[in-house]
Write a structure and sequence with these properties.
alpha/beta, 31 helices, 15 strands, 9% strand, globular, binds S-adenosylmethionine, MeTrfase_RsmB-F_NOP2_cat, RNA-binding
């Protein structure tokens, strides 16, 4: 199974005729070799099953758990079933894969590919986007795989290039594995359950009377059997549950067994189990035991996917396009060479990147000549993808708070020939103070990594409740900063994409909901991604805004990609003046901060007006907050106070002097002036003064600055006045009500 999933296609699963699988599974083993089932004989002969790859702690256990592999049942037959001859052809094609694909460069190049008449939109006619430093020959337009092909999908080109053998082989493997899994489940059921019996799951003991949860490794098979039984009972509770037993008891048993079998902390297993129905949860935990396929992303600043594929194939790499949904991904099945050291790699023709990491950038859809911010960018997989989509035009700001990781980011930027990117090293929380006015912002947030357990099994045990408080808090602050960094007037954009490689609700829907609550000036929009499950609008007693459906969830068991979450927002108006910004700074103070650092927004209009929302805040806003949130304010207060104190320390002030009094003073100030510190009238002439510099250095724009009162007329004069008036009209100056919404959400 370990190897298997590496071979399975990523993205939306293809249709599988389950009835056929079931029928054939029942025939096995050993399946009769009949005229209708030619594939099985061949495949079985050729493909001895390999031991699953599991984490070391469980490796022994798991291989023990499956001591005898059933002969693989036959794969499903499709309408266009493959004959013996075809199969031979396909397999020959497979064996000859390298040879025949090698021929791409020669005969296929000159004839077949000419016939394919491929478009090559990515590069334009003259291929001028190719790095001029490269001494790569300009490529014949119709001899490439376009990265913008649509109908005549790249896969068809591969088929044309005789890779069909590989595809068929994989299809068969998938079908066999699916059937095998089902057979295994059935076998387990048979062991414990004669038709009609209610499996004895609770208080289960082995033959020697030991409780099954305490079994040692060699008893993993029993544990697995009980897992299967429990799931069956939960699937059909009415008929299969033991009398007098509740669902809760079965669920508790399942949780214990998952922890014992897969090695999770109970805390995390419970959290993950809550995301799915029992059977799907089982599939999720199983999928976390096997690695995802290796994928590379073609760097279209340097080459084309087709050309890259040809070069790698010549080096003995078995590959295939990652799926119809991506025009730049190649899935690697096998390689004779280390993929991180090929000449193509060193020349920046590709980057090793998990397939699901393509998704946030695809959702962001950056356009040429835009200004884009990648808030948490290191090591740069997504930054370099953004730059490639922008064809090295416009400007990307790639920021990361971690200096060491930023070095890796710089390395990738150089290797991949990215020339439109500035690397910065701020806490992204400070970004709106550093500069704003971006057309698009990507926030690929730091997260718990519950989507990538297959890569990092330590997540199973090292995440605590505290992590699921701290991380979401940081994510919430970051998302506000992301929103506040975007120019809602952007002609081409005004979008924010939020992503994580985690599947927990706390780090995803709850963060998005928080953003919707705190920023009425954004709304969720479609991600434009062609697959992915809808985000939750309701789960575990939590209710989210109906538009949460537009967010997308990705799971390893569903799509064979890392677990991921993607949400896309459109900013429709400026951030309200009474909004509390990331890090606890008031929007109004930010107005002042930005007015003083005029010119930092790289040619864009100054952003002082950004933070004054002229729209009346919708009446029902309060209501929606209590429906969907309002659970964060108290928690936020603690963090905000902490942030303020840290900022004071940074400035060399004593945070213990009398912070409460200072806060009260500021509040009183707010009350008097209609907006928070409305009396502060930023003066343009100070733009390059010491305070502005301070801000550019990433220091606070809050209290110290607020206490000075520069003259308003110098901040775009009447515009600023209008803004203030608008803010007042919208009730922005009133002290925000304390939300008392449900804590549980
Ligand atoms: C999920 S990784 C980003 C991966 C990156 N987008 C890519 O595709 O290569 C999260 C990054 O956030 C950075 N980070 C964490 N807290 C941050 C903060 N407050 N400001 C900026 N970056 C932060 C971490 O250093 C880490 O590199």
């Amino acid at each position: 199974m370990g190897k298997g999933r590496r071979m399975i296609k990523q993205g939306p699963p293809g249709p599988l005729d389950e009835s056929l699988v079931t029928r054939k599974r029942k025939d096995a083993p050993p399946a009769p070799v009949s005229a209708q089932q030619p594939k099985k004989r061949k495949t079985q002969d050729r493909k001895p099953k390999k031991a699953p790859q599991v984490n070391p702690g469980r490796a022994g256990a798991k291989s023990k758990a499956k001591p005898v592999k059933k002969a693989a049942p036959p794969p499903p037959q499709s309408d266009d079933d493959i004959s013996d001859e075809e199969l031979d052809d396909a397999e020959d094609g497979l064996d000859a894969k390298v040879t025949r694909l090698d021929a791409l460069g020669s005969d296929i190049d000159s004839e077949d590919l000419d016939d394919l008449d491929l478009q090559d939109d990515e590069f334009g006619d003259d291929g001028s986007v190719l790095d001029s430093g490269d001494d790569e020959k300009p490529m014949k337009k119709n001899a490439m795989w376009s990265d913008d092909e649509d109908d005549d999908d790249i896969e068809e080109k591969l088929t044309a290039a005789n890779i069909e053998g590989l595809s068929r082989k994989r299809d068969m493997e998938i079908a066999i594995r699916e059937a095998e899994a089902a057979a295994e489940l059935e076998e387990a059921q048979m062991q414990t359950n004669i038709a009609g019996d209610r499996p004895k799951v609770l208080d289960d003991e082995d033959e020697e009377g030991r409780p099954i949860t305490n079994l040692v490794t060699q008893d993993m098979q029993l544990l697995r059997t009980r897992l299967n039984d429990t799931i069956r009972v939960l699937d059909d509770f009415k008929n299969l549950a033991e009398e007098g037993r509740s669902r809760t008891e079965y669920r508790a048993q399942l949780l214990k067994d998952i922890c014992a079998y897969y090695g999770y902390s109970e805390f995390l297993a419970d959290k993950l189990l809550s995301l799915f129905p029992a059977r799907e949860a089982f599939a999720f935990f199983e999928a976390n035991e096997t690695p995802r396929p290796i994928v590379i992303r073609t760097n279209t600043l340097r080459t084309h996917r087709r050309e890259l594929a040809q070069s790698l194939i010549q080096r003995g790499v078995q590959l295939e396009p990652v799926g119809k949904w991506s025009k730049v991904g190649l899935q690697i099945f096998d390689s004779q060479v280390p993929l991180g050291a090929t000449p193509e790699y060193l020349a920046g023709h590709y980057i090793l990147q998990a397939a699901s990491s393509f998704l946030p950038v695809m959702a962001l859809a950056p356009q040429e000549d835009e200004r884009v911010l990648d808030m948490t960018a290191a090591p740069g997989g997504k930054t370099t993808h953004i730059a490639a989509l922008m064809k090295n035009t416009g400007c990307v700001f790639a920021n990361d708070a971690n200096k060491d990781r930023a070095k890796g980011l710089i390395g990738n930027i150089h290797r991949l020939g990215v020339r439109n990117t500035v690397v910065c090293n701020y806490s992204a929380l400070e970004f709106p103070k550093v500069m704003g006015g971006f057309d698009r912002v990507l926030l690929d947030a730091p997260c718990s990594g519950t989507g990538v357990i297959a890569k990092d099994a330590s997540v199973k045990t090292n995440k605590t409740e505290a992590d699921f408080l701290k991380l979401p808090h940081l994510q919430k602050q970051l998302i506000l900063a992301a929103i506040d960094s975007v120019d809602h007037h952007s002609k081409t954009g005004g979008y924010i994409v939020y992503s994580t490689c985690s599947v927990t609700v706390e780090e995803n829907e709850q963060v998005v909901q928080y953003a919707l609550n705190k920023r009425p000036n954004v709304k969720l929009v479609e991600t434009g991604l062609v697959f992915g499950k809808e985000g939750f609008t309701k789960i575990g007693g939590k209710i989210f805004h109906p538009s949460m459906k537009m967010t997308r969830r990705y799971y390893p068991h569903a799509y064979n990609v890392d677990g991921f979450f993607v949400a896309k927002f459109k900013k429709v108006a400026a951030t309200p003046a009474n909004a509390v910004l990331a890090g606890g700074v008031s929007a109004h103070n930010m107005v002042k901060a930005n007015s003083k650092s005029n010119g930092t927004s790289a040619g864009k209009p100054p952003v002082e007006e950004e933070y004054v929302d002229k729209r009346p805040v919708p009446e029902n806003d309060e209501e929606s907050e209590s429906d969907f949130g309002g659970w964060d304010d108290e928690e936020d207060q603690v963090y905000m106070e902490r942030a303020e104190r840290a900022q004071m320390r940074k400035k060399g002030k004593n945070p213990n002097a009398d912070p409460k009094a200072a806060r009260e003073k500021a509040k009183a100030h707010e009350g008097q002036n209609g907006t928070s510190a409305a009396g502060e009238k930023p003066a343009k002439k100070e733009a390059n003064g010491s305070e502005a510099k301070e801000r550019q250095n990433g220091t606070s724009a809050s209290k110290g600055a607020a206490d000075k009162a520069p003259a308003k007329k110098e901040v775009n004069g009447s515009k600023a006045k209008k803004a203030d008036a608008g803010a007042k009209a919208s009730g922005a100056g009133s002290t925000p009500k304390k939300k008392t919404g449900r804590k549980s959400i």
